[in-house]
UniProtKB/TrEMBL annotation:
Region (Disordered) residue spans: 109-131
Keyword vocabulary terms for this entry: Hydrolase, Magnesium, Manganese, Metal-binding, Protein phosphatase
Basic and acidic residues composition-biased segments: 116-127
Keyword Metal-binding in annotation: yes
Name this protein carries in UniProt: protein-serine/threonine phosphatase
Taxonomic superkingdom: Eukaryota
InterPro entries: PP2C, PP2C_BS, PPM-type-like_dom_sf, PPM-type_phosphatase-like_dom
Amino acid sequence: MEDYHVAKFAQIQDNELGLFAIYDGHVGDRVPAYLQKHLFTNILREEEFWEDPTLSISKAYESTDQEILSHSSDLGRGGSTAVTAILINGRRLWIANVGDSRAVLSRKGQAVQMTTDHEPNTERGSIETRGGFVSNLPGDVPRVNGKLAVSRAFGDKSLKSHLRSDPDVQNTDVDVDTEILILASDGIWKVMTNQEAVDIARRTTRDPQKAAKQLTAEALKRDSKDDISCVVVKFR
């Protein structure tokens, strides 16, 4: 198992923060374990966090990746995707990601995808500009230099010159129509649509942990071949 997650609340400067994340590792679990321990800490240490969360999240993603690369002798040659969500005082949500772990909101029962999957084919230009290539072998997914199936990731020192670690960052109000947030690794999204995931989660909306277990069970039932991690956050 190379997936790690975060789901906790913290009180900081009279503000309540909900901190939620999925880290989907590859080639070992040391990088996602490092992210689980350090990424949110690094984000909240940024001086401008309360004035400019978007900038602070982006800076912390990049600096954390540099930390991982500088400790590659201990952390190994692997890497990790990330999707993070920070809920500020129950009213505003900041979502960021690198890779193909995804965040989906339910608004009035309708699925709204809040992240972009960073896949080699969609970011081919960036990869080739950096001197890499995208392989498209029959029966396989597109891969950076024939190896990695995502175009952005933490770690992956041997491929880093061809990869990005800057996140896409989105923010949104949590209003009366906002019901559920689902964060999940690609083991979920390869076997079900965003709307199917929302429908399953809404059926067990009183218990978000149970909803996450239901989503995982359904992915296994659909013969998902990847590691499966899921966090469900209930707003109403």
